[in-house]
């Protein structure tokens, strides 16, 4: 059974916030451990505690030496390889926006094709006339007829 969606907001109660931090940190350590084990990759985790515990050392996984080894290996890589697949929030949002724009264009094209197809069916059924068509519908109808004609010619020509 899944959990209900948690509203992401500052937890005002100090005790609750501390307990939540510890639980989430434990879950995060478990996930990094599973990722490293199941995928066979080197991973490390550095978690700094709450602001009021500034004097406390950050928690590291798997160990301070292991974390230092992974960080050293990462820093010794040439920059071209180091930054190749990294992304920041801005790049992520830009990529996500581009994907959504592509989806919107695809949906818009499909919508226009369906409208033209419906218009063609209405014309064939006698419900509408070509005189009713504006330039966009007429051009869409011509393109659709050309596409269907090419498909039929390709089928007739065979493989």
TrEMBL record:
Transmembrane regions listed in the UniProt entry: none
Q: Which GO terms describe its molecular function?
A: DNA-binding transcription factor activity, RNA polymerase II-specific; protein dimerization activity; RNA polymerase II cis-regulatory region sequence-specific DNA binding
Q: What GO CC terms are in its UniProt record?
A: nucleus
A GO BP term, please?
Answer: positive regulation of transcription by RNA polymerase II
What compartments host this protein? Nucleus
Give the MADS-box domain ranges. Answer: 1-49
Q: Which UniProt keywords apply?
A: Coiled coil, DNA-binding, Nucleus, Transcription, Transcription regulation
Q: Which organism is it from?
A: Zingiber officinale (Ginger)
- Residues forming coiled coils: 90-117
State the name under which the record lists this protein.
Answer: MADS-box domain-containing protein
